[in-house]
Amino acid sequence: xxxxxxxxxxxxxxxxxxxxxxxxxxxxxxxxxxxxxxxxxxxxxxxxxxxxxxxxxxxxxxxxxxxxxxxxxxxxxxxxxxxxxxxxxxxxxxxxxxxxxxxxxxxxxxxxxxxxxxxxxxxxxxxxxxxxxxxxxxxxxxxxxxxxxxxxxxxxxxxxxxxxxxxxxxxxxxxxxxxxxxxxxxxxxxxxxxxxxxxxxxxxxxxxxxxxxxxxxxxxxxxxxxxxxxxxxxxxxxxxxxxxxxxxxxxxxxxxxxxxxxxxxxxxxxxxxxxxxxxxxxxxxxxxxxxxxxxxxxxxxxxxxxxxxxxxxxxxxxxxxxxxxxxxxxxxxxxx
Length: 336
Description:
The chain is an alpha/beta fold. Helix content is 49%, strand content 19%.
């Protein structure tokens, strides 16, 4: 049997409302040389039955069923699919997301034109309650660059990579031993990207909408945001510590710079959110604890926010009006 050029990895769990649209978006691709490997993580609804129906109609769709492993063993689910994959390129499409019809054609063409391209990604439409509510931000790096440029950005702040837009060289993943998931981190994306970016080659952000990412209140990014923020810092520092000296020198970074940058860019907004919630709920102990964490992140803005919260807690108020007014002013300035 001929090998497909692209292997699509689709982890899914209880996605009966969305998996049909996910699969149909692959079947609608203008590029047809693909296989889709769906790993059903012990769904208790009709997800597996819907996938089985599609697989019976199109031999490019494959279903693997397993007992539930959950988010803390997500890398096992991804690597289960990768072990079955035969394509030169690997794409990610989780069971509640979907693609525009041009996605694979556009990215595969670029990968074939740039032999050392390890990884590409692009813009994603963001859906909530079935409606597009926005798009992920344009990252600070754009276009084709050495992988180390993207690695540096990933260590200092974040990647802005939504997995539904990603396509990777399978050989790059295999050289790393597959997808990675660091302890205490409820996802495979950052753990894997930060390792891929240490390889020799290039990475590219494509100015095109290459996927649709569905958000919900029960989603990991919504319920475990603090764990993701703190875990991302641990991963960044751990990977930096393990890098060869020549790679660290090439990046021109120091450990304390990574610590400070990620604390201010990622930890501070998360600590602020938890602190505000604690103030609204009149949980003084929690508000004070996270105000102290916010101060530890450094920076004038975070310190002022924390001090205001401490004063608000002392007077039994939440200052939510002040925070919301500030956010509206910032948003108005950005639009202008």
